[in-house]
Amino acid sequence: MAEPGRGTAARAGWAVRSWWLITGMWIRSTMAYRASFALSLAANTLITFLDFAVLLLMFAHTRQLAGWTLAETGFLYATSSVALGAANVLVGSVGGLGERVRSGSLDTMLIRPAPALAQLAAERFSLRRLGRLVQAFAVLGWSLTALDVHWSWDRVLMVPALLLCGTVIFCALFVGCSCVQFWWGEAAELQNAVTYGGATVLQYPPTVFAKELVAGTVFGVPLAFVNWLPALHVLGRTDPLGLPAAFRFASPLAAALCVLAAGLAWRAGLRAYRSTGS
Amino acid sequence: MGRVRVRVIVDKGTSVFDGVYLSVARGAFRRYSTYRAATVAGTVTNTVFGMILASTMLALWRARPGLGGYDAAQAVTYIWISQGLLVTVAVWGGGFQDDLQARFRSGDIAVDLYRPVDFQGWWLATDLGRAGYQLLTRGALPMLAGAALFDLVLPGDPLVWAEFLLAVALAVVVSFGLRFLASITGFWLHDSDGVRAAMAVVSMFFSGMLLPLALFPGALGELARVLPFSAMVQLPADVLLQRRTGTALLGLYGFQLAWGAALLALGRAGQTLAVRRVVVQGG
Amino acid sequence: MAVIEVEDVRRSFTVRTKEGRWRRGKREVRAVDGLSFTVAEGECVGYIGPNGAGKSTTVKMLTGILVPSGGRLRVAGVDPAARRAELARRIGVVFGQRTTLWWDLPLRDSYELARRIYRIPDARYRANLDRCVELLDLAALLDTPVRQLSLGQRMRGDLAAALLHDPSVLYLDEPTIGLDTVSKAKVRAFLRETNRERRTTVLLTTHDLTDIEQLCGRVMVIDHGRLVLDGPLERLHEIGGSERTLVVDLAEAHPPIDLPGVRVARTEGPRQWLAFPARQSAAPIVAAVAERYPLVDLSVREPAIEDVISRIYAGDPAAVPAP
């Protein structure tokens, strides 16, 4: 019998495969209610367009917001939304942790031979979450053409790199913040404050916010590495905090640290759950 | 305060003036008050979003002072009022809808229709109880945080606050009417998730939750002002910011009442159809 | 060979209590308090006790979900808490009140997922599925969405799902709860067959003593986190599960009914409690009562686990269940 390997790579591969298997089951489940599914996918795409419409309405009254143009703000909006949207598709379901604990379905996950985190992340997966991603890529495409930027190769490469790192950072935030629910089952909304709240912050120019808040996103919850800092390089703008240029290229490092922290939080949470059985 | 608000609605209702509904509302109030961690987490979330949106509004008003007839302090106050109303008025949906959905999933919904208490009235009562609790917590606390962090313009006259509370109560009724309609599609669609998601989008945008409706240009603005959604956030905020006083205030209440009554009547018609459908299917 | 070894296992929880409106206190509760037993390969053991006695805590520790506070546990030679994922392939779990099947999908899809998650080789999967389908009568249900199945059909479906990967240990939590008589019989027959033919070790938690009677050669009774009885089923009967009670309502108060093999346990106005041996049919007694007395209404009460336990404590086999 094919036992899953013991190496880290084999375990990660098995986690991804488990995620994919369970996600597939949920996709087929939603297809049982086609009308509702179609409507919610449409609504989800629309919802995020109305989100962007707010930005358009603001720029209908001004040409610059805190010194940034619509195309620049659109770039921030799109990169933040792609990262959040992709993370939401991949691991957004971990926010339901408290509910899984209450209903006892976390126990069911723990007695299956697949990583519990992968199962939790795939739980109640819904294709309608792709709506945000579709819209975010559309806005990104538009902003890239509208930007007045000299596209040197380093700037071109920076865009996919920041999307990738941003997605990883948001994934880690989803997982890490959900772990609070191991101790505090009803606190699902705290995770929203960090993930959705964080993504909303990143949709606007950093100059809109108080310096303390911006510093908090660099040295506290490392949101600034999702798009603010790398975007400074892409758009050729000066840093409102005056940080060294190296920060603009530090997103991969920040992403790695986030994953590490989230992994530790998950382990600690699961250990606490298994020793208290709350 | 919450109890007073419930009374106001009860007086207005036709069949709702009944001890049962009052105790149902009280029960809901008490039930929500037990979700303490959720309340704290939610209050933090509202405060975070309030800070973000208030900062963006300040940036916009720095570029365009006096935009939409608001000064910067009023615009920021508007944002904090809307954050206080988000969960109270359930602009994003939720409240009784989650309970109702659980009843649909378990199949208990068919039984509910045959109870001696009125189906719509029962859920309205629970939603008013819920709103009462959330006004006191997730409505008031983010506002206090906002007042501590930003310069807000809030009225000192208690009468204005009373007028605001009435507008909020009516906002909850309008919101209930809309959400009830969205939820009972579950009788036909098996799963009302899609409709609820769609409703949430439109509500957020047209209620003035994301941006004051005064900033909506031309026809979009006209449309936003006649749709029922404005009764949920924009109008209560207008009352507290004293943009509508005297006869204009009466007109505002009239608008909320008219939409509330129309939506409840529509919901009632839908409920009748649903009962007929359940009878045909044999439960 | 022992498949399950439990040695002085303890598990305590900290429970938050409400004291007044805002203050909260903490209290330590010992859910499992020095539990020791072994289960040999191929045994079928009934594990019973009142609610909150520590049954599900034990099962959670045996599956590796919960880490014990103390003591030593081995299942199939493995420490469950330390090697949970590895153990998962070798155990099957069925919760009577919670399905692991996919609600909106045909039954077959849940089995396909199990095949992949448990990495069951194709030939073995097909053989096991065929066997379950035949014995549990699932052929007509395989393409039905689970939400359309009756409770009994769903339980049969759950049983099959838990056995496709040939677990060496099967934990069953109230597998017959809420089922009709026919489904109960099918489920029991299947479990008996699996236990005998496959040598699958079964640990069965139930409130229905009939499950135990028909399936288990051995019973363990747990109360307040400790074993209060561990032995063959006969022991349980000896101690007190041996009597059923016929409650009869007569038209008016009568002196105690006098019938052979029947003991009047209690009278209360026109109502009388008649105790009779559990293995005896109630029908002749009912007929005899109806013939001689003005019978208005009646009901038969099975011995409740709570009563059995209270009698174990009392050490009085003739004690009568409180109504």
UniProtKB/TrEMBL annotation, chain A:
Swiss-Prot/TrEMBL keywords: Membrane, Transmembrane, Transmembrane helix
Record carries keyword Transmembrane helix: yes
Domain of life: Bacteria
Sequence intervals crossing the membrane: 35-60, 75-97, 133-153, 159-184, 213-233, 245-266
Protein name according to UniProt: Transporter
Organism field: Kitasatospora phosalacinea
From TrEMBL, chain C:
Pfam families, alphabetized: ABC_tran (PF00005)
Domain of life, source organism: Bacteria
Keywords, alphabetical: Antibiotic resistance, ATP-binding, Nucleotide-binding, Transport
MF-aspect GO terms: ATP binding; ATP hydrolysis activity
Principal localisation: membrane
Listed name of the protein: ABC transporter ATP-binding protein
Organism: Kitasatospora phosalacinea
InterPro entries membership: AAA+_ATPase, ABC_transporter-like_ATP-bd, ABC_transporter_ATP-binding, P-loop_NTPase
Family matches, as PROSITE patterns: ABC_TRANSPORTER_2
Assigned GO CC terms: plasma membrane
Locations listed in the record: Cell membrane
Domain ABC transporter stretches: 4-249
